Give the backbone structure.
Amino acid sequence: MNAKEILSQASDIVSYERHLVHGDKHKNFPNIALMWNAYLSTRPVRGQPLDAEDVAHMMVLLKIARTKSGLVNIDDYVDGCGYLSIAGELTGAQVDS
């Protein structure tokens, strides 16, 4: 794909029926911002750079925010579980068997 084709595909994705699945971007993005700001406010050291585990947690919150608008999309739940499992792996914690 060339740059023009990529831009055209991206325009189609964000301009048409995507809002039916993920909800209106004018509502969804503010919801995501609220959740991310709440998460960031609970960090033990404010202003500390984000790490990989933070990113995984925040991606879970993005998926949760998406469940609040648009159609029910099972991918939000599956992806949320996936991101949370990644966060668990990144902690390096061991499970006792």
